[in-house]
Design goal:
This protein has one domain: Uracil-DNA Glycosylase, subunit E (3-Layer(aba) Sandwich). The protein is built from nine helices and six strands, in the order ααββααβαβααββαα. Strands 1-3-2-4-6-5 form a six-stranded mixed beta sheet, with helices on both faces. The longest helix has 18 residues.
């Protein structure tokens, strides 16, 4: 009988992963102190995003995809923009890419509900095209306020566009992966990894992604 973790690794198509990590589950600390998160601030911010008309994406969206997860988590995952499934459901990282992200997290002992997940853009670009500079600029305030409210101890940028935006660089994923960066005035540690949608198209890169996950696991534990 395969363990639950091995089943997740099998789902990702990387059977070799099981031998690399014998450290058990990865825990994400949660700040449960009273008043540590002001829900009213979250409510106001989300309502602003839901009614946003700062760019033309408001004309083509089905749902605003604000973000989902534990608002007191130490770990924040940031992607690029909603896709078709996300636009339909109003939640980031669903569909096949979302299932793969869940499997990736479970491979290191994390659950989707343990962390917070958001995108740079809160609305889907038509035909899943890359975000335009003025769209990113219009949406930046929402993400920055989310980061400020969560105060994560680690940010993971998922995909080239998210990484390049957060790090203000045009370097390739090949150059960005495997290093620890720091984001913003608080110098929050930041790691870069592949987007699950890319891994679905390029399964040979999954072993590299798993190394990124192990790096993330080590940083969370420390």
């Amino acid at each position: 009988m395969k363990s639950e973790r091995q089943q997740y690794l099998d789902a990702m198509g990387i059977q070799v992963w099981q031998a690399k990590d014998a450290g058990g589950e990865c825990s994400v600390n949660v700040n449960t102190e009273s008043g540590s998160v002001d829900q009213s601030d979250w409510d106001v911010l989300e309502q602003q995003a839901m009614h946003c008309t700062l760019c033309d994406l408001c004309k083509t969206r089905t749902h605003v995809v604000f973000g989902v997860g534990n608002k007191q988590s130490d770990l924040l995952i940031i992607g690029e923009a909603p896709g078709a499934n996300e636009d339909k459901q109003g939640e980031p990282f669903v569909g096949r890419a979302g299932m793969l992200l869940n499997a990736m997290l479970n491979a290191i002992g994390l659950k989707r509900s343990d962390i917070y997940i958001a995108n740079i853009l809160k609305c889907r670009p038509p035909q899943n095209r890359d975000p335009l500079p003025h769209e990113i600029e219009s949406c930046t305030s929402y993400l920055q306020q989310q980061i400020s409210l969560i105060q994560p101890k680690l940010i993971v940028a998922v995909g080239r566009i998210a990484a390049q935006y957060l790090l203000n660089t045009k370097d390739s994923m090949g150059k960005l992966r495997g290093n620890v960066y720091h984001y913003g005035e608080q110098s929050i540690p930041l790691l870069v990894t592949y987007h699950p949608a890319y891994l679905l198209r390029s399964p040979r890169e999954k072993s590299k992604s798993y190394r990124d996950l192990l790096h993330m696991q080590t940083m969370i534990r420390n």
